[in-house]
């Protein structure tokens, strides 16, 4: 179903629930894909979202659990917190262990223990095992239900074992282990189906297996899967034992999560904030960053204060003064966005930073020259004074170059200092372009107006 239709459907469901026609509402939702049910729930007003979810939960637990899984931790978190621990247990034990662990870790600790106690022993054990791994690692996002066979298994036996294991994670590849559960090989479903039943898998398998350890960062796992175009990657312990698998659907979730995190951090926002986060909470989350920006803004104001007498003498400087740091800041953020993305994708490091810097310098100088000439022409036509146009052109070129240098090197420097480049780079870039813009324009402008 196109997502554009879910708001209309949500309104229909809301009316049915408000009238007490729960059976009719469920009948509509039961015909939808879980992803569409999740979107309908998101489109509903807060009070009706919980009522509607209870309707689905009471009549079709599997659909309710699947919808929660499609909603994701951020959107489903507030919904789960309003349910009884027993209901949360029933839902989470229907999900894959890695998904259940993600939801459980987002719950308050006192509720988390109650939910675990309410789950079936096997599901609770799988989830607890995953929660022992640090957040945002391969161990936390892997599914422990991985299908494996031994080296001496024949192709025919492997097919029969696979048919008898309906609850394992999506089987894109068959992993081969030795008697110590150490990963020694892999073969694809295509290889499995194209060989004779009596052939041993050890004769078919690939021994050079791409694998990740449980402590590898989830972003690195996502980069690995994307780089090699594979559908799943096995996860091994420090001893090389096969303990789980990360599939492409998990990787997509990681990419979305990391992209959202970087975007929020570059704007100084917490990843826990969403469109409908309560206003008081949003205020608390945003005010620290704005306070930090205020502190850096005083530095730019101090630079302007150095030219206070000159601005009073040449009032025309005040008219054009905001233009240079504003455009320089935008240019710096463009460079910064490209660099942070390059670091996130593993494209940029100190080894190739010189090439990136030279490229950004050429781009910055060219853009500065072109924009500077446009501003100069505009200022000349508007005020009839070529000296202001000259000052604007030169200051713009210089500020764009500063933006290129700081926007390229600052993310790398912060990463070297073990600070998230997406979190702090924008403050330094904005401060550098503001200070450079004011200093260059006012300095050159005063000299031009005084001497020429």
Task: Give your account of this protein's structure.
With 452 residues, the chain is mainly alpha-helical. The chain contains 21 helices and six strands. The protein has helices at 6-18, 22-29, 34-43, 46-59, 61-81, 85-92, 97-105, 109-118, 121-131, 138-141, 155-163, 189-194, 218-228, 248-266, 279-305, 308-313, 316-320, 323-344, 353-383, 386-416, 421-451, and strands spanning 148-150, 173-177, 183-188, 212-213, 232-236, 242-247. A three-stranded mixed beta sheet has the order 1-2-3. A hairpin with a 5-residue loop joins strand 2 (173-177) and strand 3 (183-188). Helix 1 (6-18) packs antiparallel against helix 2, helix 1 (6-18) crosses helix 3 (34-43) and helix 6 crosses helix 8.
Annotation, overall tally of beta strands:
6
Percent range for β-strand residues: 5-15%
- DSSP helical segment count: 21
What level of helicity do the residues show?
55-70%
Global mean pLDDT:
86
Question: Could you spell the SSE succession in H and E letters?
Answer: HHHHHHHHHHEHEEHEHEEHHHHHHHH
Low-pLDDT regions: none
Q: How is the main sheet built?
A: 3 strands, mixed
The radius of gyration is: 29 Å
The helix-and-strand class reads mainly alpha
Termini gap: 69 Å
Q: Overall 3D geometry?
A: globular
Strand order of the largest sheet: 1-2-3
Topology:
Elements: H1 6-18, H2 22-29, H3 34-43, H4 46-59, H5 61-81, H6 85-92, H7 97-105, H8 109-118, H9 121-131, H10 138-141, E1 148-150, H11 155-163, E2 173-177, E3 183-188, H12 189-194, E4 212-213, H13 218-228, E5 232-236, E6 242-247, H14 248-266, H15 279-305, H16 308-313, H17 316-320, H18 323-344, H19 353-383, H20 386-416, H21 421-451
Parallel strand pairs: 1-2, 4-5
Antiparallel strand pairs: 2-3, 5-6
């Amino acid at each position: 179903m196109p997502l554009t239709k879910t708001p209309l459907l949500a309104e229909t469901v809301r009316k049915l629930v408000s009238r007490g026609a729960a059976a009719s509402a469920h009948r509509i939702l039961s015909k939808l894909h879980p992803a569409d049910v999740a979107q309908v729930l998101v489109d509903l007003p807060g009070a009706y979202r919980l009522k509607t979810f209870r309707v689905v939960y009471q009549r079709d637990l599997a659909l309710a659990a699947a919808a929660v899984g499609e909603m994701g931790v951020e959107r489903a978190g507030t919904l789960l917190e309003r349910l009884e621990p027993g209901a949360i247990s029933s839902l989470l034990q229907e999900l894959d262990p890695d998904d259940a662990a993600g939801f459980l870790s987002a719950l308050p600790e006192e509720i988390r223990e109650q939910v675990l106690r309410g789950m079936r022993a096997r599901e609770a054990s799988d989830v607890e095992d995953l929660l022992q791994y640090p957040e945002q690692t391969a161990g936390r996002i892997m599914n422990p239900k991985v299908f494996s066979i031994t080296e001496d298994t024949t192709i025919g036996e492997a097919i029969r074992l696979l048919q008898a294991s309906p609850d394992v994670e999506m089987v894109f590849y068959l992993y081969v282990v030795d008697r110590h559960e150490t990963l020694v090989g892999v073969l694809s479903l295509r290889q499995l189906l194209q060989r004779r039943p009596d052939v041993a898998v050890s004769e078919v398998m690939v021994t050079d297996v791409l694998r990740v350890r449980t402590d590898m960062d989830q972003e690195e796992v996502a980069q690995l899967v994307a780089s090699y175009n594979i559908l799943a990657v096995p996860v091994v312990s420090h001893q090389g034992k096969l303990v789980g698998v990360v599939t492409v659907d998990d990787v997509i979730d990681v990419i979305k999560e990391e992209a959202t995190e970087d975007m929020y951090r570059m704007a100084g926002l917490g990843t826990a904030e969403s469109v409908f986060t309560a206003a008081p909470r949003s205020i608390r989350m945003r005010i620290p960053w704005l306070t930090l920006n205020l502190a850096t803004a005083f530095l730019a104001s101090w630079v302007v204060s150095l030219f206070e007498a000159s601005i009073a003498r040449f009032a025309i400087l005040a008219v054009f003064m905001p233009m240079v740091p504003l455009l320089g800041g935008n240019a710096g953020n463009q460079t910064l966005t490209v660099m942070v993305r390059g670091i996130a994708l593993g494209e940029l490091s100190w080894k190739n930073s010189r090439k990136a810097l030279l490229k950004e310098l050429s781009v910055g100088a060219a853009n500065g020259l072109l924009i500077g000439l446009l501003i100069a022409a505009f200022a000349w036509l508007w005020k009839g004074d070529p000296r202001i146009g000259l000052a604007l052109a030169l200051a713009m070129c210089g500020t764009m170059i500063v933006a290129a240098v700081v926007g390229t090197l600052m993310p790398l420097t912060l990463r070297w200092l073990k600070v998230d480049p997406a979190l702090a780079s924008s403050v330094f870039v904005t401060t550098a372009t503001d200070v450079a813009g004011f200093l260059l324009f006012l300095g050159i402008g005063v000299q031009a107006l005084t001497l020429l």
